[in-house]
Design a protein that fits this description.
- The structure holds 2 protein chains of 2 kinds.
- Chain A is of the alpha/beta class.
- Helices cover 41% and strands 19% of the residues of chain A.
- Chain A is built from 12 helices and 11 strands.
- In chain A, strand 1 (70-75), helix 2 (80-93) and strand 2 form a beta-alpha-beta unit.
- The longest helix of chain A has 31 residues, at 11-41.
- The termini of chain A are far apart.
- Chain B has 9 helices and 8 strands.
- A 5-stranded mixed β-sheet of chain B has the order 4-5-6-8-7, with helices on one face. In chain B, strands 1-3-2 form a 3-stranded antiparallel β-sheet.
- In chain B, 62% of the residues lie in helices and 14% in strands.
- In chain B, helix 7 (344-365) links the parallel strand 4 (329-334) and strand 5 (369-377).
- Chain B has helices at 15-71, 80-91, 146-271, 274-301, 304-309, 311-323, 344-365, 405-416, 448-453, and strands spanning 98-103, 122-131, 134-144, 329-334, 369-377, 380-387, 420-425, 431-438.
- Chain B is an alpha+beta fold.
- At the A-B interface, helix 1 and helix 3 of A face helix 1, helix 2, strand 1, strand 2 and helix 3 of B.
Chain lengths: 318, 454
């Protein structure tokens, strides 16, 4: 007896058609899924340009032409008090010249703004990074300032050792001598004062980075915020530069390190370990009004003013 | 019925195989659909959520930076501490891998922060940084697709298993049902085939029985026909014997009596004894009447001419007698009979058919030519009488209608001897009567008369 299937003769063709239909459906579903995912995910490549813009690029953000007789300076907050004092003395000597020192935009901001030719001089308080050094900028150091461990005036301690400083930032030392809790303040990564201490003490560099990673301490964004915190928070401690404290007569006290106070002599002798250099950076070799300003900074009155404010003029006296 | 009890037939319907072949592509489709749909939906929804969240974060960061730009319209992009503060405030949200600020030329603003190496593909959403409806930059937020992809891949396993499970159910449940149905159908077909075989066997038995009964019936019919023939032969032979006896004995005696009576009458009349002469004359008259009756009876019992001259001469004499009519010509073609002749019954039937047919020609046919033929075949005798007369309608006449008795009598006589009588005629086309008779005998020597006498 033959099979009861009436379509038996057509079975191979109908089966092949069914497989073909399923294959078409699978392909259509796959294509639809891919289109759906691509539509949802969209463009996944980095949607912006990364890196420095060459000066001959149409994207180079050179600022509009600045008026003659006006200098624009911006950068690290560590430089600003001294630079503004120097700008004032420069204006006194050159009444037609105006030097505008903007509020802090940070070391990196100062370097990039100078590279972008948005300002005339950038202010930096740390060595240029390798990347920044590769931009071909002109660096003109003009002062060195001791970096101090500044504390609230109520803190009874007068001196710290470097290991004690490391313990404080590691969270192992939590009170001052009188039992007052220590309130540790940090500046953001890249802060020149922290870099200066870290370069002198690898242990501090490690605990400082660990503290960043663990968000262990309160991070204050600017010199102004640091000044305010150190002045108002009992038991507060943070890294600051001696020049700003002296120049602005801030109500904070710098601690000695290993009983050695920060001074030009202790820094120059190397007994005091923490210091940073202040410098101007420019996209072109200083000339014109910028050159006049640099020459003014190197003049005797300016150097004396710097010394009197706790800074060490650069280049150092021979 | 179990599979063991009902093994799969070689010529099975193959419904399971047919169904499996068609279910397989559908099952594959089901597995793919079930396995991929949920992970795909999860990935799509998660990616959509990431995109929405990234866009919202970008808008928030762009708004915050926009407020910053109000205070620092040019140097905002260089104040990394403020930018970092804004970015860090939002970058801790779940599903946010990177936040980048781009100036209006599309160049990323470099910020001093460590970048976690993001190996995964990022889904980027942006929001413009606008000041007084002027776009000064963009905030791009990158959301990692790794979690969405990992979740989707994680769902792939259970939903793949689910898909295979559903596919197995969809594949095997109808398959088992169709197998069960197929086994039942096979069993029914087997039973049907057995029934068909039994029916065929019964049919063969019935056919055999019918054949046997038919054969038996035919044998009985043949026997009956033979008996009828023998009866007719016996009847005809007996009639011939009776006729001969009547003719030879009673006839001769009465003839002698008649002669004597005639002599007595003549003698008594001559002697003047009128009374005896009259009595003898009346007795003579009665004797003549009796002789006439005997001759008529002899004629009815069997044509005496057959005994006198034989069948061929008798038929020839019939032809001669009817041929004496001036308007009718009769041609005869009569074969020589074997020395021992035919049986009395066959001769009687042939003679009477010829006599009846020629009488019909003379009475009704209006023919002017008749052909009479007697031929002998192997075991048969054929008599043909054909005329060119007006013929007649051969269709059967209604029962009770007059006429036709002669043809019916001829046919009955012929069929009683196992022969056939055919009439070929139509109106205006003449009539041909053909009689075929088997040469049957009652005795081996063909002398039926002797058999009867014995």
């Amino acid at each position: 007896m033959p099979t009861a299937d009436p379509d038996d003769a057509e079975s191979p063709a109908s089966l092949a058609a069914l497989w073909a239909l399923v294959a078409v459906l699978l392909v259509a579903l796959t294509v639809a899924a891919i289109l759906l995912v691509r539509n949802i995910v969209g463009e996944t490549t980095t949607p912006f340009t990364v890196g420095d813009v060459p000066r001959d690029s149409p994207l180079y953000p050179r600022s509009t032409p600045r008026p003659v007789g006006v200098l624009h300076l911006a950068g690290s907050g560590s430089n600003i008090p001294l630079t503004r004092a120097l700008a004032d003395s420069f204006h006194a000597r050159h009444p037609d010249a105006h030097v505008v020192v903007f509020d802090s935009i940070g070391d990196a901001g100062g370097v990039l703004a100078a590279y972008d030719d948005v300002i005339d001089l950038g202010l930096v308080s740390r060595p240029l990074t390798a990347h920044e050094a590769g931009l071909g900028l002109f660096v003109s150091p003009y002062a060195r300032v001791p970096v101090v461990v500044a504390v609230h005036l109520d803190v009874p301690d007068q001196s710290l050792t470097v290991p004690e400083l490391v313990d404080i930032y590691a969270g192992r030392k939590t009170t001052w001598r009188d039992g007052t809790p220590i309130v540790v303040l940090q500046r953001p990564r890249g802060d020149a004062s922290h870099l200066a201490v870290a370069s002198a003490s690898p242990e501090f560099a490690a605990v400082n980075e660990a503290a960043f990673r663990e968000s262990r301490w309160r991070v204050v964004d600017s010199d102004q915020a640091m000044q305010e915190a150190l002045s108002l928070i009992p038991g507060a401690v943070g890294l600051f530069d001696l020049g700003v404290i002296t120049l602005q007569r801030l109500p904070v006290r710098p601690l000695a390190i290993d009983d050695i106070p920060a001074s030009e002599a202790s820094v120059q002798s190397g007994r005091y370990p923490f210091a940073k250099d202040l410098a101007f950076v420019s996209v072109e070799e200083p000339g014109g009004l910028v050159g006049d300003l640099l020459r003014h900074v190197n003049e005797g009155d300016s150097r004396r003013m710097m010394r009197s404010s706790g800074y060490i003029p650069l280049p150092e006296d021979q | 019925m179990s599979a063991a009890a009902s093994p799969v037939r070689k010529d099975s319907l193959a419904l399971r195989r047919y169904l499996d072949a068609r279910m397989l592509p559908l099952v594959v489709l089901l597995v793919v659909l079930v396995a991929l749909s949920a992970p795909l939906a999860y990935f799509t929804l998660t990616a959509g959520t990431l995109r929405t969240r990234a866009h919202a974060t970008a808008a928030q960061v762009a708004a915050a930076i926009g407020r910053e730009i109000q205070a620092r319209p040019v140097l905002w992009r260089y104040d990394d501490s403020d930018l970092l503060a804004q970015i860090e405030a939002h970058s801790q949200q779940p599903g946010i891998a990177r936040i980048e600020v781009v100036d209006r030329t599309g160049v990323r603003v470099p910020l001093p922060r460590p970048h976690a190496a993001v190996a995964d593909t990022l889904l980027w959403e942006s929001a413009p940084i606008s000041i007084d409806e002027q776009v000064v930059g963009q905030v791009w937020v990158g959301a990692p697709l790794a979690d969405a992809r990992a979740g989707a891949l994680l769902l792939l396993l259970p939903f793949g298993v689910l898909g295979f499970g559903l596919a197995a159910l969809v594949f095997f449940i109808p398959g088992r049902a169709i197998s069960r149905a197929e086994r039942r159908i096979d069993a029914l077909i087997t039973r049907l085939e057995h029934s068909q075989s039994a029916l065929a066997e019964l049919n063969r038995t019935l056919e055999q029985q019918v054949a046997d009964r038919s054969s038996e019936l035919r044998a009985k019919e043949q026997r009956l026909r033979e008996l009828s023939s023998r009866a007719v032969l016996l009847q005809e032979a007996e009639r011939r014997v009776i006729a001969r006896e009547l003719h030879d004995s009673a006839g001769q005696a009465l003839t002698a009596i008649r002669i004597n009576l005639q002599i007595i009458a003549q003698l008594e009349q001559a002697s003047g004894n009128e009374r005896i002469a009259g009595l003898a004359s009346r007795t003579l008259t009665i004797t003549d009447a009796t002789l006439e009756e005997i001759r008529r009876a002899v004629s009815m019992l069997g044509p005496a001419i057959l005994d006198d001259v034989g069948l061929v001469a008798a038929i020839q004499r019939l032809c001669d007698d009817f041929g004496e009519r001036p308007d009718l010509r009769i041609d005869s073609d009569l074969a020589e009979l074997p020395p021992d002749g035919l049986t009395a019954a066959i001769e009687s039937v042939c003679y009477r058919v010829a006599q009846e047919a020629l009488t019909n020609v003379a009475r009704h046919a209006r023919a002017n030519h008749v052909r009479v033929a007697l031929t002998l075949g192997p075991g048969t005798v054929r008599l043909e009488i054909a005329d060119n007369g007006r013929g007649f309608d051969p269709s059967p006449r209604p029962r009770g209608s007059p006429g036709g008795r002669g043809l019916v009598g001829m046919r009955e006589r012929v069929e009683l001897l196992g022969g056939t009588l055919r009439i070929a005629t139509n109106p205006g086309g003449g009539t041909a009567i053909t009689v075929d008779l088997p040469q049957v005998t009652l005795s081996e020597d063909g002398d039926d008369t002797a058999l009867v006498v014995a």
